[in-house]
Amino acid sequence: MARRSTSSSTGSSASPRNRTPQPVSVRRRSFGDFVKAFFAFVALLVLVIGVPGALAVLVGWPLPSEFTPMDWLKQDVTVGTFLHILTVVVWCAWAQFTACVLVEVKAALSGVGVPGRVPGAGPSQLLARQLVAALLLVGATAASLTPGLSQLGQSLEGNQKPTVAAAQQTPGLFAQQQEQAASTAAALAEQASQAAAHADAGAGTAKGDTKYYRIQPPEGRHHDSLWEIADRHLGDGRRYKEIFQLNKDRVQPDGSRLSEASLIRPGWIMEMPGDARGGELVEMPDEAPNVSQQVQQQIHDYAKTGDHAQGGGGQQGGAGAGAGASHVSLPQQRPAPDQHQQQNRQQNSQQQNQQHAGSAQESSAFGLPQALIGAPLLAAGLLGALGRRRRHALWQSALGAVGGRRGMEPPTPTGDALDVQDALLVGADPEGVRLLDRSLRGLAASLAAESRPLPTVYAAWMSNGDLHLQLAQPSGKPPAPWQLGQDQTFWLLARSDAEQYGDTDTAAPYPGLVSLGTMDDSRLLLNLEAVPGIVSLSGREADRAAVFASVAAELATNGWSDRMTITLVGFGEDLTPLAPNRLRHLDDTEALLETMEAETRQRRGALGAAGHDSVLTGRTGPAQHTRWAPHLVLLAAQPSAEDAVKLAELAADASRLGIGYLVGTETGDLPGAAWEMEITGQGKLLAPLLGLELDAQLLPAAQQQAVVELFVQADPDQGPDGPTNTPPFLVDISEQGRPAVYARLVGPYEIIGLETPDGERSALLHEALALLLLHREGVHPRVLSSALWPRGVTDDVREALLERLRAWLGTDPDGSPRLTADASGRLTLAKSVVSDLDVLRSLYHEATQGRGVDNRAVRGRLLTDALVLVRGPLLADRPEGRYRWLTHEIVDAQLPLLVADIGLALSAFHLEKDRAEKAIEALNAAVRTAPDDERLWNELLRATHSTDDTDRLQALAADLVGRGGARGLPPRTEALLDELLPTWRGGVTAAG
């Protein structure tokens, strides 16, 4: 069931929450940094220049001038010989270290990706990396030394485009996402008041006091941003909004305009608030000796546009949008708002806040955990895995493979487990999971058909049903129906195009995608196996644990992956029941390092032997059968300094091998961390260098325990608390127990005892009643509304339906309503409202565990009556597109097993008296509802064999072989046929 779209804001409409980054302390270069840089320079000078110089002066060239191998072998081995050999080794070590220095310097200055690995250079390259980093620290910020996503799609060439409208349309791992709160009315009001205050202050200030700042070109990996400008010159990065408002939509020297606070270009001019300070600022029109005449003239011209010309800005934005639309059709998610749009957004924001407040109040009243309701992909994965586990337990029990137990009903959850199950039902979005899986596999299949490799995908954004893949680098034009997104590093698939994809046998291309949280209406999935290094997570231990549990649970149960290994270290031993084949737990970091060192070597060798550059090339084309399953490591506890260095070495080449690392840290300082994130106590996931501030997806400890309890209860090996034969609701099957309302669900849907509702609401009322009849323990109102309206519904519509449902069901003769709410708020039906499924269960229970146990005649009558009730599959005539909530139920698996048990019991009843034809009749009736139950066919063979009609038995064997198709007959059925009809193989061949 898809989740309803609810606002995640917890604040009132008058005080919107701030979605911009929290103040981040920018590390200034201290005297110690310069000292470290000096010593690093000296060390590099000594190692790169001093070593070869000393060797040349003190030892000279160690190799002989003539190549005479035989003479070498005849010469005596002297001390000089050893010195020459040692000199050669030192020369080789120097050459390797120099190569490491060159590789590290090139990577640091280019700012592209992680440094390449020099073969066999391990410690040498690590030393070179540290020395180069210390040297460059005085010329670049610490952020410039960490490979990340902050500049994806922001190359200088791309920044020269005449319009940025396309860049405003789709999300990315950029700071532009932090500005979406500016679209809310409250934030706009706040900014307007700040601008007005600035205007008032400026009215009494001389024109010569106005200050301007010119955006600086990139330095290494560092790019100017309004946040850093505000932090340097205003003392608070959060004041970047004031700079944005002063310059919004004003024409820049290159002819473009500022429309997003994160989209600024080198050479642009920014007017600064009057209290700005700093040597980089320029006061105009006063002369500034350090500013060229050209720049002075540009600032003079820019100052003339101080009225901001909002109308012109809107037109420019429209033109840009049109230009973008001619290139690629994108959803207009983030156009520059005009006044009418602002009013609409304010109203929508207030409505969303009111809905969220109502949802929060309801959640508090009924105890549903909001963390799972707001995690649709995680909820869908958990719900699907739980359903598979329960069906497996049911089949195991029916086949008598678990301690001889036979049961139809799994344990009913209670307490927190019941609340979590309801939250999963409310929040799950199986349709979203299905579309994501089909879209990714369809993309892989299309690329394979074109003999193109899979591009490296760092992240995926799901926004309003559309899917945006963020690539590590441009990879050309995507295959149809994919389109280019806001730039060459984004591939876009609209939801309408995704719905056209069908199932394909292609391997899952990006199984390492996992949800981290949401930003406004966009959900971020990070591809852990593609990270060029370690992903670090800092914050309080409890907050980190909630993130780790959410990531582990979604990876273990998601629907867009095939095989996968997830190693949990320092947490999660209790999570293994979620997916025992995927999840494994290690006790400590030492065991992890030993395991990963061996696997890293093995994967490198396997890739080399297969001739692949990375696991991505192994997931398409002829080699895709190998699947190249990812291995994702989740290390919750901070490793020691020594272990952290070893992890960094392993992670340096991990993305190519399909290995990902998510490591917790208390300090936020972790060697080899490519992407650094922080989880706050308010549930925010921050990554300032990536421009991210997400509402984090969490799985708190209490919900984690309840989820695990659901899976443990469904485990067929858990013991006497497994599936039982006692129905959740027993019906009085005597004449005195005639119900007031009787619904026939087994077969076509019919209701006896109620008038058919008029109008189009009839189908909705019927579906609601069916859901309540299948859950006699009670249904949460939010579960009911999510089942009926998977795309969401408002509270008033749901309450109106419940009122109509109460009125339709009416009251019993004593005046009590037939639809009530229990103490927990869950909706329950009166005992006077029953279904034929309730009667079917009660008849079988009474025949096998009640009066029929000691009375053969009663048992035969009850079993016969039960089999007569079976008119086909459950809700056989349900309309297409409705009753989708049945995919989360196990009743579709329970009903065939129950009918098969009834047929087997009635067959045994007749065979006791040698009534083979009656037994065959009962078995054939059961087969019509449970055609795949092997037990029925085996009993049908035995009953047919008892008639001594060989031709009839041969015909039945041929029918069975035909049903088996290419799979053939089950082994036990084949063995039974060999016993009853040794010539069956020849007869089937002749018939074929």
From TrEMBL:
Keyword GTP-binding recorded: no
Name the residues that span the membrane: 37-61, 81-105, 126-145
Mark out the compositionally biased spans (Low complexity).
Answer: 1-15, 331-355
Q: Tell me which Gene Ontology terms the entry assigns under biological process.
A: phosphorelay signal transduction system
Q: SMART domains of this UniProt entry?
A: BTAD
Could you tell me which residues the TPR repeats occupy?
A: 900-933
InterPro entries, per database record? Bact_Kbp, BTAD, LysM_dom_sf, TPR-like_helical_dom_sf, TPR_rpt
Q: How is this protein named in the record?
A: Bacterial transcriptional activator domain-containing protein
